[in-house]
Design brief:
Strands 1, 4, 5, 6, 7, 8, 9 and 10 form an eight-stranded antiparallel beta sheet that branches. A hairpin with a 2-residue loop joins β12 and β13. This protein is about 5% helix and about 50% strand. The termini are far apart. By secondary structure, it is mainly beta. The longest helix has 8 residues.
Amino acid sequence: FRPSPGVSLDVNYFHHDVEDLIGYVVVHSGPDELNLNHANTDDTISIEGVEVETQVLTGRAWRLFLNYTYQDAVSEAGDGASETGRNAPRHKVSGGVRYQGPAVVDLRARHVDEVTYTEVPGTPVEAYTTVDLAVSYAISPDWGVKITALDLLDLRAELPVDGTSLVPAIQGEPAALASLEERPQAFGRPLYGSERWGVLADGHKYT
């Protein structure tokens, strides 16, 4: 919809049905080994929502935009249990202003509602806001300089989970191995009832 020159309003409805998702499964576990593999999990997810965006162009120099997305996601496990879909925040808002003159200045802000990610299904990440700034300048037709500053407000979303990468331990680094020996290790979807997921502690697997 174009109510006037330089002004646009777009409204989009979307609906996605994804069947037979692919994720990590435990193939084999023992006191001294753990084998993970990507496999079809028989889980499904349905995502439905609306996206609204408006843009305002002022001459050739200025561009302003504002975007809002609402989405409702529901996932269903292979055993029939359903829950709010992961990796899909219900509300997202983004906006920004771009100036194109001797230099290009791009300022953008984004707000994301509380969301639960697949990697840590039991602990949602709180809503967070970020502001980013980028400035670029063309020195010549072939060369340019760009400086980008991310998360100017430094408002980080805290995730109250004590996690660590397993890569150093897999590579055999002694310090990483020692730290992991002192705590239970969780892989995939820990403690959520499915037989193919579990927690390793003291050489035993718990599901």
